[in-house]
Write a structure and sequence with these properties.
Blueprint (H helix, E strand, L loop, with lengths): L7 H13 L3 H14 L4 H13 L3 H14 L4 H13 L3 H14 L4 H12 L4 H12 L2 H7 L14 E8 L4 E9 L1
Antiparallel strand pairs: 1-2
């Protein structure tokens, strides 16, 4: 197969393929090639941010997300991603601002609602946190992605454990914690 060296999308897709294989060095190489051909590629900036976030380098991830937002301040994905990275650095109040902006730009952005609900619930902002959590819970398309357990349909909790799902969406890792037993 012959590769046209002037098509940035090819390099971006190769970067994404190597990212998926956790070969971050090769992914960066291809993302860099894509940026040389198309320096205004918001997708590549977001992908580089996700790569560094996956590596645990949240500060570097934020740099790439901010570059995406410099090009398009109304990019809901970049706002959500930056909010997520800020939250992972313990900068929750700043993160919430970016989640709010992502949701303002795309009111049905399930991931932004889901992450923001956890960021709000963590310090005890239960009123707004539960509202966001419930919004996700009852949004049909979010059930399988974020809530693989069956939805409570009103049955009694008598002698049954009640579980609260904590989910860090960016890493797609979740754990269930028992909250109380009745």
């Amino acid at each position: 197969m012959q590769l046209n060296p002037n098509i940035s999308d090819v390099y971006r897709n190769l970067g994404l393929a190597f990212y998926e294989k956790q070969d971050f060095d090769k992914a960066i190489t291809y993302y860099d090639k894509a940026l040389k051909l198309s320096p205004g590629s918001i997708d590549v900036y977001n992908n580089l941010g996700a790569l560094f976030q996956e590596k645990g380098d949240y500060r570097e991830a934020m740099v790439w997300y901010q570059k995406a937002l410099e090009l398009d301040p109304d990019n809901a994905v970049a706002c959500n991603n930056l909010g997520n990275a800020l939250s992972q650095c313990g900068r929750d109040s700043e993160a919430i601002g970016y989640f709010r902006k992502a949701i303002l730009l795309n009111p049905d952005y399930v991931e932004a609602h889901a992450i923001m609900s956890h960021v709000l619930l963590s310090p005890g902002n239960f009123q707004e946190g539960w509202e966001e959590y419930e919004w996700c819970l009852f949004k049909k398309e979010s059930r399988s992605a974020f809530f693989p357990q069956p939805v409570w349909e009103g049955s009694s909790f008598q002698k049954k454990p009640f579980w609260f799902m904590l989910n860090r969406v960016s890493a797609m890792k979740s754990c269930l914690l028992p909250v109380f037993r009745m």
